[in-house]
What does this fold into?
Amino acid sequence: MPRERLVSPELISKDEESFNRTLRPPTLDEYIGQKKVVEKLSIALQAAKQRGEALEHVLFHGPPGLGKTTLANIIANALGSKIVTTSGPALERTGDLMGILTNLGERDVLFIDEIHRLPANIEEFLYPAMEDFKVDFVVDKGMYARTINVPLKRFTLAGATTRAGSLSSPLRNRFGLFYHLEFYEVAELAEIVVRSSRILDIRLEPEGAAEVARRARGTPRIANRLLRRVRDYAEVKAAGEITPDVARSALNLEGVDELGLDDLDRNFLSAIIRLYHGGPVGVEALSATLNEEVDTLVDMVEPFLLQQGFVSRTKAGRKANEPAYRHLHLPLSGPAELPLKFAGS
Ligand code: ADE
It folds into this structure.
């Protein structure tokens, strides 16, 4: 079971999922950030609408929490059609997918999250569905086995993946539209926090929104999650309004610093610098030192630290870079053995 972190970009609970649904912008007009994607998608949608056609199959790729599900829902809203949501690992048998596909109407959207994790047999079953809007379904077994050809309505497949590189090329080639989502600017996240506060009826000073935004690691899902924690703090410890001071105190208490790093991130950097002289050090050694699974470090800790330039991955292992030393207030060429102090212990 991966550990739960306030700053993890993955969804952490069912409750959070329904919370996010209330905050999701229903149209592109209300969507903040991802300007290029919004502009291109808006043109593609308008053209499809003018022709009365389904939108071409669309693939969203990029890190988690940046709006892939939101955009798929916006497409369905814009076309006045229904959306059916599933995910790669949830589709195990062709029969499951057969049921979903045959129930889709004209211009409906089938959203498959984590599409890089589709089992191979399901992926092959999808090819004729995407290309010719038909499926070849095998009924009966042995000498009675027959293939029946079932026509489908012209639907749109919206796929989402964090790893576009691990999609097979036959699948990738069947998409017509590709949109890469980027991390958000702080100003955009602040706008999102202001919008969410309006919806949730939270009193918030603009600088309070900026404080939350700065710590949200470029990710709206994290910004909205931090907003909830800060709202609780404001209601219990302050007069209910989110001022910059309230936001800072609430997030410091949660261990989320000015750049959005938490205890685990800081311990990771601190271990490389203090115990391994800045690296390079293998991730297995760090895993043993920090008592965290290798997968947790690789999937949940390193991506943001790499993206921010705090660490580099080299053949010989992980290395801490100058911004990491500065952030932890450690000298670049310090004494060989610094006393080890972990923020979380
Ligand atoms: N809530 C979450 N992401 C959003 C976005 N990109 N725009 C507006 N509200 C959002």
Q: What stands out?
A: The chain has a mean pLDDT of 93.
